[in-house]
Here is the input.
Amino acid sequence: MAKSSLTIIIVSYNTKDLLEKCLTSIIKAKITYPYEIIVSDNGSKDGSRELVKAQFKEVRLLVSSQNLGFAGGNNRAKNYVNSTYVLFLNSDTLVNADSVNKSVGYLDKHPKVGLVSCKTLLPDGSLDKDCRRSFPTPWAAFSHLVIPLDRLFPNSKIFSRYWYGYINPDLEHEIDVAQGAFMLTRKVVLDKMGWFDEDYFMDGEDVDLCWRIKNDGWKIVYYPKIFIVHYKKASKKSKILSRKDRLRSRMASVNSMETFYKKHLWQKYNILVNSVVSLGIYLIKLQRLLSVLIVK
Here is the structure.
């Protein structure tokens, strides 16, 4: 039996310094499986492409003249992938020596698992809670986004479903959604799912893909025996972003929430619930629009 192979896909957008650290961490990890790294650059203007060409000649670089978003950036790489597994990795992450090897080994040993993620730590060592999420059903979203009951009752199974606050983050368990910062899946699964849905520009693509994977009968697992470090939302914080780009970034998650709800949940709820959800989304959009417009 041939040894499992791996393609690591990194979407890059104006995160040059972090991209360099990310690529260096991968190379230092001494991955024991045959692997290739693909950097899909979304029109960076900070020298990211030049960095890859000059310092990481073993990396395949795909260049776009415009920002295709997370989904489009990753999907550009699919015609170049012939490996057993595909790891989607953010450019603002650092992997350690075991992150990749152990996650690939996990999928090798668990044929019913379609996607595996890991514990994700922020630079200060705290847990990035977005690394394990439930689907944003009306109640999960309400208790997280509208009235933050999950902050008030962080260990409650009723109020803290969104971030699985009632499950110890050191325990392996099944989840609904893995964060796009580190998602290892099977190429056969991706091909069947059609990769990422490009109706999402930024945020929500990972939720949508996980929804389709789970609905196809695969398990999604949070595997905390391995970890990465995540310098979160680096591309959104870039100092060279215009106000238009900042507005697009601020609105991305709520637009994605609306897209996901209408695609996958609208038909599951009655008109009253759908009306309340629509009103909530509208109010969040308004708040975010104003937050960008009033900042010089």
About this structure: The mean pLDDT is 90. The domain at 6-134+175-235 is CATH 3.90.550.10 (Spore Coat Polysaccharide Biosynthesis Protein SpsA; Chain A). The radius of gyration is 19 Å.
